Automatic annotation (TrEMBL):
It comes from Amycolatopsis pithecellobii. Transmembrane segments: none annotated. GO terms for biological process: response to stress. Coiled coil: none annotated. GO terms for molecular function: DNA binding; DNA-binding transcription factor activity. This is MarR family transcriptional regulator. Keywords: DNA-binding, Transcription, Transcription regulation.
Length: 139
């Protein structure tokens, strides 16, 4: 099995567990919507930035943002640095769901610590952070 797949399988497991926890808490969001929500910056993001970060077309990002806005996950607000532009910002609902997601991630990481050991998990994390230096263009 190649390294990329070995990285993806645990991520997919984590993502499915997080989406399940969010759904169990009463939040309704699709995987595509959640992946876009993850990329909204703390101070908001422009649609083109979201599309690029999510690796989807601007039209797809616009469609997802429209859905998220109708469902109360995001709001479009004027960009204070450019009067012509708008920012996509997370709403209180998205921030509440984020708390649920973070708690589930903590549970998953604790399970992984128990399974492989804290030292190996720390090494894995350190290695992945180092790899992000050369693989994450949005860092």
């Amino acid at each position: 099995m190649n390294t990329g797949l070995l990285l993806y399988i645990p991520y997919r497991h984590l993502e499915n567990r997080v989406l399940g926890a969010i759904a169990a808490a009463g939040f309704d969001v699709t995987i595509a919507q959640a992946r876009l929500l993850q990329r909204v910056g703390a101070r908001g993001s422009r649609l083109t930035e979201l599309a690029e970060a999510a690796q989807v077309t601007k039209q797809t990002a616009g469609f997802l943002v429209d859905q998220l806005e109708k469902a109360g996950w995001v709001a479009r607000v004027p960009d204070p640095t450019d009067g012509r532009a708008r920012l996509v910002c997370l709403t209180a609902k998205a921030k509440e769901a984020s708390v649920v997601a973070e708690a589930e991630i903590e549970r998953i990481e604790a399970e992984w610590d128990r399974h492989v050991g804290k030292r190996k998990m720390a090494q894995l994390r350190e290695t992945l952070e180092k790899l992000c230096e050369i693989t994450d263009p949005y860092r």
